Each structure stands twice: as C-alpha cells, then as structure tokens.
Automatic annotation (TrEMBL):
<protein>
    <submittedName>
        <fullName>Glycosyltransferase family 2 protein</fullName>
    </submittedName>
</protein>
<dbReference type="InterPro" id="IPR050256">
    <property type="entry name" value="Glycosyltransferase_2"/>
</dbReference>
<feature type="transmembrane region" description="Helical">
    <location>
        <begin position="265"/>
        <end position="288"/>
    </location>
</feature>
<feature type="domain" description="Glycosyltransferase 2-like">
    <location>
        <begin position="8"/>
        <end position="163"/>
    </location>
</feature>
<dbReference type="Pfam" id="PF00535">
    <property type="entry name" value="Glycos_transf_2"/>
</dbReference>
<keyword id="KW-1133">Transmembrane helix</keyword>
<keyword id="KW-0472">Membrane</keyword>
<dbReference type="InterPro" id="IPR029044">
    <property type="entry name" value="Nucleotide-diphossugar_trans"/>
</dbReference>
<keyword id="KW-0812">Transmembrane</keyword>
<dbReference type="InterPro" id="IPR001173">
    <property type="entry name" value="Glyco_trans_2-like"/>
</dbReference>
<feature type="transmembrane region" description="Helical">
    <location>
        <begin position="231"/>
        <end position="253"/>
    </location>
</feature>
Amino acid sequence: MNNEKIAILIPCYNESLTIKKVINDFQRELPEADIYVYDNNSTDNTYEIALNEGAIVKKEPRQGKGNVIRQMFFDIEADYYLMVDGDDTYPAENSHELIAALREGSADMVIGDRLSNGTYFNENKRAFHDFGNNLVKNSINRLYQANIKDVMTGYRGFNRMFVKSFPVMSSGFQIETEFTIHALDKRFKLVEIPIDYRDRPEGSESKLDTYSDGLKVLLTILKMFKDYKPLLFFSVFSLIFCVFGLAFGVPVINEFIHTGFITKVPSSILATGLMVFALLLLITGLILDTVVTNAKKEYELHLYRLYEETIQKEKI
C-alpha cells in the first residue's frame, strides 16, 4: 500500500478560473497522488496556471474529452486513477471514499453519484439537462437490467485493470456513457458513492452543448446497443418489419384462401419484400451475436493475461 501510485486525471479546456483551486484541493486531500492536467487546446492560460501549481501538464491537440482521456490512459501508469473535471464542480473531499472502494477491491470503477442526494438538481440550472440525464440513465438501465443512478458524471475512479483494458471509442463527452456501458457489458464491479455537486462559479462556462452533445450521447447508446447486443438490436427491427409484412400480407392470404386468386399484387409484392427483409435482419443479428460472443471470450482471455501481469508486478 505504501508503494501504490494514485493518479489524478484532469482533462481541461479553458478552465483558468478554476484549475488552480481544483489542483490545490486534490494536493491537500491526496498529497501522495500525482496530478496530471492535459490541456485540450485552451485559448486562456490554463496550461501556465496548472504548471505553476505543480501539476504534471501536457497538451493534447486532438479536440474532445474522449481524445484526452484516451491519451491519458495510454501515457499514465498507476494503481488507481481518479478522473475529475477541471471546473471545480466535484469536491476533492470525496476522493478518499472513491479510492477506498478501489483499494479494498469492491469496485473496478467507482462512480461519483451527483443525483442521489439532489445537489445536482438544485445547483444545475441548464435547460433539459435533467431530462437528458434521466433519458440516458433509464435507457442503459433497461438495456442491461441495471440500477445505475448517475451515468454521465465526470467524477470517477478506476483500477489499473479497467484502465488498461478499456477501448476508448468516443472522441467527445460521450466518453462517460461509454465508461458505464463498457463496465456493465464486461461485468466489471461498479460502486456508486453519493457526492455533493456544485455548479460552476460565475464566469466559467460549460463546454457541453445541451442539444448537439445530447444527440451524440443518444447516438452512442444506439451504436453500443448494436455493437454489444446485436441479436436484440436486429431482432427489434426484424419484428417491426415482420409486423408490417403481416399487415400487408394477411389480406392477400385471406383473399387467396377464399377465392383462389390474388388481385392485390402490389400488396403481395410489398409483403414478401418486408418479410424477406425481416428475415435478413434476424440472420444478421444471429451472425453478429456469434461474432460478439467470440470477441467477449477473447476479451476475457486478455483480462486474465493482464491480471497475471499485475500480480507479477506486485511480487517484484
């Protein structure tokens, strides 16, 4: 435990008003931790302030939070990782609880839950954010039969196993949704810890666009639904086309049974096409489900190898 390494990950874009306080708060709470600030093309003096406060500062030229986190995961070696935004909305005081859950092995990823105690709803005044949070949360919980309370929080903790086996696919703010879906799909241990949320100080503006980024998050969920659960995804569309096929085809079949003739030729052609398309969707789902199952097996073997490497490093 004395040799363990803790890394604080702070992705930043134009956070000159708050970055000093964020760094100082974590230096006070976790003096043994290394604090990494990755500046994502800021046009203010975020980089200089972070450097002056003793953080390890790097620049990431590819715009987007997902790109920053991807590079951080590549670069940084640690036992435990704590990711937090540079806008001073998350309290450093809760960092001990997040790290403790990782250290005792009860979680591979810890979620700083802003929603359970109501502070997010009291502090955040941006239109549609509550609606968006609930929509994303309910969609993921239904998809995975889970009970995650805060899907899109930017305050999270990870162990090394999670970080080094996480494929970052998103380039922007969808990364938080991706973390949660990946953890649920790959059966990582999740723990949610209620935290207090405070809104940005006056003069500091959110980089999250309610509509465009919200749409990107929803499209990410849809894409991951297709990638992670293809049989269910394609079966839903197969069922829809099958229902339409029956709607057009049943009158044609009924006419043939009673008269022995088919006069509704366009309806019969349309019904046949819809049923064939429904069958093709179902077959596609079955094939992709086999591919995903094999990919999961490979991923599990990769985790075993990574676990063995971690054990060997601890023995050295």
